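Recap from last week: sequence in, structure out.
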Amino acid sequence: MRRSAKTTMFIGRMKHFRKDESGGMLILMLAIFFGITIFGGLAVDLANHERTRTTFQTHLDNAVLAAASLSQELDAEEVVRSYLLSAGLDPSEVEIDTSEEKIGGILVGRTVEASLPAGLNTYFFRFFDIETLGMTISSEATERVEDIEISLVLDVSGSMGERTSDRSGIKLDLLKNAASDFVETILSDSEEGRVSISIIPYSTKVNAGANLLGQYTTTSEHNYSHCVDFEANDYSLISLDPTRQLQRTGHFQFQSMSTSDQSRGQWVCRYDAGFAITPLSNSVAALKAQISALTAEGSTSIDVGAKWGLALLDPSAQAPVSGLIASGVVGAEFQGRPHPHGAENSMKVLVLMTDGENFPEYRLEPEYASGQSDVIRTTYNNSSRFYAVDAPEGSNANDGRSPNSERYFYAVHPFSSSRMWDDNTMRDHPDLRSYRNYLEEEYLDWPEVWAEMSPYYYGYNLYGKRSNYSNYWNYYMQQFWGNMHDTISAGEKDRRLRQICGAANDAGIVIYSIGMDVDSTNSLNLLKDCASSETHYFNVEGLEIQTAFDMIAASISMLRLTK
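Predicted structure tokens:
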């Protein structure tokens, strides 16, 4: 059958079309174009989603960080919401969870958690029926105290050597046990260098110790002991300027009225083992060794103990601490301490303990604190000592023998107890020429006098006995004592304690106060007012001192002391 010409032409064109490949490339390009467009659009939506999520995350992170700060005093939830609102975000759906850690009412840790649901309108995902891309942003921030500085101010006055009211033991022994356990509890779980403890024993005064006091500027009357006299305005501040000259406490004894013993009584500035301040230590062994060495003696000066305890928590002590580090007394890990008040992640704690109330404080009048005295000391063969004063004999002061105008009055005459005056010192005495090479003689300055005899001994034997009337000798002794010292009253010391406790609380220092077997209502009120709050105040008897220190240690140990 013969094909028509038209049929043959159609069949030929179809075969050609079938074999022509130029149209396939166009279709492929169109497919790729649409694919790129769709996936590129999806990528835009995803990029917008990530950008939005990052922005929201940044705002939420900043919000919870601000809310968790221990330095802010507003409600944490309100801080978060306010921060988000100011950033242009809707805070209505944010979920917030807060928790706080407190020690006796003092905020020491805060955690803020927040989650914020959000959605982003899409451009290309909606072709797949996805009109929004959801997200939930979460954030958490915690701020806690990490560095802790503690001043442990302990009463070791004479009454601490007595039995407790409940007869459970000697007060000082119970204090030693409680304070030792406190030190071990605080330091056993702390990271190296995070916690420092200073021990400040006090009775009549506080002996800073040669090393610590050497970092401050003081007068230089003597170097027998290392206490200073604070003035009233020193208690308006917790700082102690190391460049301002402090008055060194006179080295003398008081209270004993012995007229026979040259050195009898209580030292105003104790210098026995264990009594000096231990500044900024984290050595459990060293701190417990000092606590173990404490002994009870002297009267009570709570204000002076508090002053030194707070001074070692104040940044004004940074230079002295640096000097102690350089000399190897304090560990290098405490460089830069005490931290500034209000420093982030730091806490300052004062533990103030007493068993009584403030007693009057005695100080030497300036004319008896320094300079040459009228006392001549004669030393025989580097051992036996004899004392005389350069005090010419007078009408109401003579030994009834001729001449009646001799120059030197002896506490104990080398030849006769009845002959007290002489024209010669022992070394120049004609009857002692053969001993001249064995006698050393010198005028003493007043600090040397008080280092070798009590004011009562001087007042009776070198001042009172000059009178012809022996029944007045005690009277003259008391007269001399009154003339050579000044007194800071107990009431004034109470006022000073209140003042410096107020300054410490204003600075944010946490103060715990412990009254052990305290009978004085006034003293208990002082301790209660000094504490940071009523929960920081402990009124205990006997063995309860252990409970008080345990509770304080436990509350401090609540902190996470590691980074």
